[in-house]
Amino acid sequence: MTGHESHEYSFTEALEIVSCSESTLRRKLNENGSKLGATKLKKGWRIPVETLEALGVLKTVTGQPTEQLTGHDRSETSQEITRLRIENATLRAENEGLKQLLSEREKVVALLEQSPRHESFWSRFTHRNERKTE
Questions:
Q1: pLDDT digits (tens, 9 = 90+) for 97-132
Q2: Could you tell me which residues are beta bridge partners of residue 8?
Q3: How far is Cα 47 from Cα 13, in angstroms, rounded to an integer?
Q4: Which residues is 41 bridged to in the sheet?
Q5: In angstroms, rounded to a whole number, what is the distance separating the alpha carbons of residues 84 and 90?
Q6: What tens digit of pLDDT does each residue of 9-49 get?
Q7: C-alpha–C-alpha distance, residues 101 and 6, integer Å
Q8: Sign (positive or negative) of CA dihedral 103, 104, 105, 110
């Protein structure tokens, strides 16, 4: 859990809490924001706090007391948390894409199951010849 309230920020709200300029935040969101869980709407961005952390514009807060960690340990822990957040966001995006693909395929299967079965040419041909001989 982060030390920040867990919700989505607008671009303007995010600017108030990040440690970078407006142009840097905009560039980072345009490059990787969608991959990391941010959503660009007609009215602007919806940015989860985890995305801001993964973009490196918001400091992560770990559950470990910082007094016990050396500068090197803090840096490694922060980098690991950031790496895991990026991986998590990437997997969530991939999962959503797979859910959408599965949904589309289920619709196709349902349509195929509803469509009438066509008899093959050779089946029709042999049945027609059988009927003529009777």
A1: 899 999 999 998 888 888 666 777 777 777 766 666
A2: 48
A3: 9
A4: 44
A5: 10
A6: 889 888 888 888 999 999 999 998 888 889 988 889 999 88
A7: 29
A8: positive
